[in-house]
Amino acid sequence: MADFYTLLTNAGIAYETACKAAGVPIKLAQISVGDGNGAVYNPDATAKALKREVWRGPLNALFQDEKNPSWLLAEVTIPPEVGGWYVREAGLWTDTGVLYAIVKYPESFKPVLATSGSGKEFYIRSIFETSNASLVTLLIDDTVVKATRAWVTGYVADELAKLDAKQSVRVATTENITLSAAQTIDGLAVVAGDRILVKNQTAAKDNGLYVVTNAAWVRTKDADASAKVTSAMTVSVEQGATLADTIWQLVTDGAIVLGTTALAFQNVTQGFAPLNSPGFLGTPMAPTAPRFNVSNALASTEFVQRALGNYGSVSVMSVSETLTPQFFGRVLLLNSGTEFTVTLPPSSSGPMGGVISFRNVGTANAKLLPSGADTLAVIATRTQTSLVIPPGSSVDLVLQGTNYFMSGTSVLKLATEFAASLGYSGYKKEPSGLITQWGSTVSSGTQSGNWSATLPITFPTACLSASILGNGGATTFSVLPMTTNALMATAMNSMTGEKLSNLGGFFIAVGY
């Protein structure tokens, strides 16, 4: 056995066992010192009192050893006004008067000022081991107990550790890491002793403040207990390729159990803009909402550019292909020297308002086909089962229901403004409203010279001009009158003025 030691007494062990069974803490209240009845001796576990007690007082402190959790350290300071004897033994007493532990103490004289000419405070520390260290508590009378420097230092350190503002860290993580050994974090090689903010672990319960070691990392002293890790805890980052000079705040609310509660940290370096009048400085980022999103989500520049018509992607096609929904929002360049066919994705697979654009940059026609019962439309009542896109032409498709509504140079011929009837008798419309019509008719069978023609369509406003060309010899037509839906004329021989019968004539009429 060591020369000097502390041991639990049998009575102390019995008291401890009873407390454990009852689920109540072990309460230590006092410490006493004795002179061993004038001689050094070896205490044993059967002791129920000191050989000769010379002083008793309240404990100053009782705490667990940092490196050995089963060790308890008891401290007391004997005031300078008592003494005049040697200290050779000490005892720890429960609140019920049981001698819990007994100490063999190195023989030391405790002077007293009145008789020895000098005096001093006498500090005693006792270390003992118990299997129930976490259940041992100290009863303290704050009006009597004096705090040692070590106790004050420890107390202040513990209280400071409970504050939300923590000592800065060297660097902060940017991804999930292995919490062991030296490694590179945010572009910086960290070494043993560095403080690290760990905030990106897959298991968020493992986030927190750590000290790098060459083995498994340990949590920092100011953040290694639940009482020290509270909501709104902040820490500054000193270095790093991306996170240097940033400040992070723990935004996990409510009670936190360290190692169990998921911990989330938020960058608060620039603080927060007022909700009623936010001011975003620098280059704030926002996620880009999905295409065709119509919610009140913030629009990033990427979303705006895409909405303005800057397509999300470009595809080049030169062979027949059936498109998939991923082609909504794209422009397709059709580039081939031989005609090929492009089949559109089913309308049911695309979003309402989805756009697909085609540009024929090749030298051959490309044919566009809808899928299934879908249709191509210029107006709702005018649909097509296919569309030919000649070289140099374009078409944009907008999906609504089962119709792909078309616009572009390839569908101008289908638009009402460019409507035409291309036959022996027919017409052609222009966007200005001008209409050109043509056809033919034959004068009456009598020699009255009466000639009339019904126009293919009625001019909405007026017929401006008309001309008739006969298919006979020297003939002329006197056109009068011109109405919005018909022409009338007199057919005659231009040489004799004779009115002619059965004379055919071709007409061109212009109106609006």
Give a verbal description of the structure.
Residues 431-512 form the Putative tail fiber protein gp53-like C-terminal domain. InterPro entries: Gp53-like_C, Phage_Tail_Fiber_Structural, Phage_tail_fibre_N. Pfam families: Gp53-like_C, Phage_tail_fib. This protein is mainly beta and 512 residues long. Strands 19-21-23-28-29-25-26 form a 7-stranded mixed β-sheet, with no helix packed on it. Strands 1, 2, 3, 6, 7 and 9 form a 6-stranded mixed β-sheet that branches. Helices cover 7% and strands 38% of the residues. Strand 14 (208-211) and strand 15 form a beta hairpin. The chain has 4 helices and 37 strands. The termini are far apart.
Features:
6-stranded mixed sheet, single chain, mainly beta, 512 residues, 4 domains, rod-shaped
Which structural class do the helices and strands define? mainly beta
Share of helix, binned: under 10%
How many separate domains? 4
**Helical element count?**
4
For the sheet with most strands, the description reads:
7 strands, mixed
Rg to the nearest angstrom? Answer: 51 Å
- In round numbers, the mean pLDDT is 86
Strand content: 35-45%
Uncertain stretches: 138-144
Number of strands: 37
The dominant shape is rod-shaped
CA(first)-CA(last) distance: 124 Å
Order of adjacent strands in the largest pleated sheet: 19-21-23-28-29-25-26
